[in-house]
Amino acid sequence: MTAVDGPVRSARAGRPVRVPFPVVDEVARHCLREEEPETIHIEIRLPGRPDPARLRRAFIEALRRHPRAQVRQAAGRWYRRRYFWELTGEPDPGVAVVAVPEPEPGALERARERSLACAPPLSASPPVRLEIVRDPGRPGGTALFLTVNHTALDGPACLRVLATAAELYGGRADAPAAAPVRAVPVDGAARAAGPPPWVPPARVARGSPSGLPGNGLLVADLAVPRRPPGAAYTVNDQLLVATALTIAEWNRERGVRPRPMRITMPVDDRPRDAEMPIGNGTRLVEVPFTAAEAASGTRDPDTLGELLRRTAGRTRALKAAPGPQMGYGALLLTAPVAPVAWRAAVTRGLRRAAGPWTSTALLSNIGRVPYALDFGDAGRADAVWFSAPARMPRGLSVTAASSAGRLHLALRWSRTLLDRSDGARLLELFERYLDATETAPAGNGGAAEEGAG
C-alpha cells in the first residue's frame, strides 16, 4: 500500500485508524535533520481580505473532508517493524491549525522564514499550519501561508485541501482541470540518452554561505515563457533546460569544470478532484544532461532548440515509464523485515555514501494551478508559490506554478551552500536562460503534451 492507494477511513471513537507509512514517508522520516526541516511552503496571494474566523472554519472543515491530511505518527517501541500514521479525524487538542499574525512591515518575509524553519511536528495532528498574513507595507490584499511537514504530505495534495477550503469559504464549486495525459515516447531510446547513471553528477558550486542552518528563499513573478507554434517541447522542458544552463553558468563563474548533470523532477498523475488521494503521491525521475549539452546549449538558437527537443524526448520517456515512487532500492530498504530503527540507520548511512551520486538539483513544476481558488469576498488567488526542501548534498530546488497567466517561481537553497546574494544571482541567470528558450526554433515532432512534471 502506498501513501495514496486504497480507501482511507475516518478515525472512529476510541482508537484511531492506523495506516502504515508508505515508502516515501518512511525514507523521509529516516533522514530527518533538525537543522534542515523538511517543509513545503505554499504561498497564495489574494486581492482582498478574508474573514479569519470564517476561513478558519472552512480550512478545518476541508481537513475533515480529506481525512488523510489529519494524521500524526503513532508511538511505538524501537523494535517495531513499521511506522504508522494515526488518522485523528479532528485536530489534536491545543494545536493551533490557523494563525493570524499581527500585521506589520516585513510580515511576508517573516512568514516565509517561519515556513522554512518551523516544520509542524509529526507527533501532533494535522502536520500543516495555515497563516493569514497582512503586510501594511504592501497595502491591500492578503497572503495565505501553508507550511507542510513533507514527511506526511506533498504540495499538490495540500493544494487540493486549500481548494476545498476555498470552495467552502466562497460558496462556489471548483471544477478542477483534468490531470495531464502522459504522451507515449516518440523515441524509445530517449530514456537511455545522456550520461550513464554511475557517473557522479555536477554539484552546485559553493557560494558565500552565511553558516546559518536551514534554507533561504526568493520568489519571482514572471511571464510564462512562449513557445513557437508546433513546438515539440513544453514549458516544463523549458524550465528544465533553464535550470541546467543556470547551474552550468554559475559553476563556470566559479572555475568549476563542466560535468554531467541530473535534475530530479517529481511526476504526479493523480486526479485533481475531491477524490484525489492525499499523501506523498508523486514519483521521482531524474532528467540527465551531458556536460557538453550544458556547456554549449546557448551558443545559438538552433543549438538551444535541439537541446530542448532532446530534453522533451527524455522527459516524455521518463513520465511514461512505470516504476515505484523512489525506485526499487527504496522498496528494498523499507521492506518490514527488520526493526525500523535498524533500517533507519542503514538508510542514513547509504544516503551519506550515495551523496556524490545525488542529483544536481530539484525542479518541481506544478504547472497550471488546476483550481480557481476563489475565496469569495477576498477574491481569486492571483499568485501561487510553492517551494520544496533544499537539503544537502543537493542544496538547491526550483519550484514553479502558473496562474492568472503568470509563472510563479520559487528558488530555495541550503544556507550551508549559498547566501541571499548567491540566490539573487542564480535567479538572475535563470530568468535570462528562460527568456533564451523563447527564441529557439520549434523543430519537428508535432504537438507536445502540455503539463507539469
Salient structural properties:
Chloramphenicol Acetyltransferase; globular; 453 residues; 19% strand; 14 strands; 6-stranded mixed beta sheet; 5-stranded mixed beta sheet; disordered N terminus; disordered C terminus; alpha+beta
Structure description:
This protein has 453 residues and is α+β, with helices and mostly antiparallel strands. It has a single domain (17-439), classed as Chloramphenicol Acetyltransferase (2-Layer Sandwich). 29% of the residues lie in helices and 19% in strands. It is built from 10 helices and 14 strands. The chain has a 6-stranded mixed β-sheet with strand order 8-14-13-11-9-10, sandwiched between helices. Strands 5-6-7-2-12 form a 5-stranded mixed β-sheet, sandwiched between helices. α2 packs across α4 (155-170) and α5 crosses α10 (420-436). The longest helix has 20 residues, at 301-320. The radius of gyration is 21 Å and the shape is globular. The chain starts with 16 loop residues before the first strand and ends in a 17-residue tail after the last helix.
- Helicity range: 25-40%
* Count of separate DSSP helical elements: 10
Measured distance between first and last alpha carbons: 23 Å
Name the CATH superfamily assignment.
Answer: Chloramphenicol acetyltransferase-like domain
Q: Indicate the mean pLDDT.
A: 87
Protein topology:
Blueprint: E1 17-20, H1 23-30, E2 39-46, H2 52-65, E3 71-73, E4 84-87, E5 98-99, H3 107-117, E6 128-133, E7 142-149, H4 155-170, E8 215-223, H5 235-253, E9 261-267, E10 283-289, H6 291-296, H7 301-320, H8 328-333, H9 340-353, E11 361-368, E12 383-387, E13 396-403, E14 406-414, H10 420-436
Parallel strand pairs: 5-6, 9-11, 11-13
Antiparallel strand pairs: 1-4, 2-7, 2-12, 3-4, 6-7, 8-14, 9-10, 13-14
Helix pairs in contact: 2-4, 5-7, 5-10
